[in-house]
Design brief:
10 helices
Length: 313
């Protein structure tokens, strides 16, 4: 894992809903030329993959519509490269009232997830519509997972270097997703940030190709830790110094972090942190999560595989 000096390329300040002043990967970065070519190549691959994926997306969309109330596919605002927001597409895996009490992170055994949603998540089929985002150039196949603006604002305040992941386009899969489970607390967010930044510094055609292949195996339910090691993609040693559960420290649950940080926000000032986050600030880490929570602003359905801006809630 590179040092903080190796990774200190950009900084972004963010408020509750918008990121600003984010920077792209600088031309001096050793992987700059690769990422420039990667964006063009993976956008073309996204268009090609979308064609055979459309029938499967349509089947899943119908299944979601039949088994639960609400749209089969919805759009949600996420933060992409340079802090720019875009609408990510996902198959709905939660109840339509999943965020009746406001934005929430998904958690293990989340009761908001439907039975069909559990299957879609396990097979990673809920991410298939994001090939549309790849085809539009908003995302790539391999990169850090995009997060919601509300959560980016919070995590940018408590995790140093978090904004560095915004230097590149977000991806459908990535090093953090392959090696670590969904986030549940600040510690798990930090662990994934380490792997996201590792990928930015070490990205290459063969590495990214293997991650796409392993993700395809997971869709077929034939992936496990042993296969990850055989394909040379096991990077858990990079986070061994930051164990998921430490007897010497207690990590802040993400839900608690959201509430505490929001309480410190005033109308005239940005978010503020306190010394309570000292332990978290020792690591140059960041955020990625398998989130499928509901966006109150865009309850969009894909009727006949065409998005409607005025679907019923």
């Amino acid at each position: 894992m590179g040092t903080s000096n190796q990774l200190n390329y950009g900084k972004v300040r963010s408020d509750s809903y918008q990121c600003a002043e984010a920077k792209s990967l600088p031309a001096s970065h050793r992987r700059y030329r690769y990422f420039s070519a990667k964006y063009r190549i993976e956008r073309g691959l996204g268009i090609l993959l979308l064609v055979p994926a459309m029938p499967l997306i349509a089947i899943c969309w119908c299944a979601v519509k039949i088994t639960s109330r609400g749209p089969g596919i919805y759009r949600q605002t996420r933060v992409g490269q340079e802090g720019k927001t875009f609408k990510v597409l996902k198959l709905r895996t939660m109840r339509i009232d999943a965020e009746a009490n406001g934005p929430q992170w998904s958690s293990k055994g989340d009761s908001r997830i439907t039975r069909l949603g559990m299957v879609l998540r396990k097979l990673h089929l809920d991410e298939l519509p994001q090939l549309v985002n790849v085809a539009k150039g908003e995302m790539v196949l391999v990169g850090p997972r995009p997060e919601r603006p509300e959560f980016v604002a919070v995590l940018s305040e408590v995790i140093p270097g978090y904004e560095r992941r915004l230097m590149v386009k977000p991806g459908i899969t990535g090093m953090a997703q392959i090696n670590l489970p969904p986030d549940t607390d600040l510690r798990s967010v930090e662990r994934k940030q380490i792997l996201d930044l590792y990928h930015i510094d070490n990205a290459g055609f063969w590495l990214d190709k293997r991650m796409v292949l392993l993700t395809a195996f997971r869709v077929l339910s034939i992936s496990n830790d042993r296969l990850t090691r055989l394909m040379g993609l096991d990077r858990k040693e990079l986070v061994e110094h930051l164990p998921a559960e430490s007897p010497d420290s207690t990590s802040t649950p993400l839900a608690t972090l959201m509430v505490e940080t929001t309480a410190k926000t005033s109308p005239d000032q940005g978010l503020h942190t306190t010394d309570d986050n000292t332990d978290a600030k020792d690591f140059h880490t960041g955020w990625d999560r398998e989130d499928d929570s509901w966006d109150d602003d865009t309850h969009d359905s894909w009727e006949g595989l065409s998005l409607s801006e005025n679907s019923p809630r």
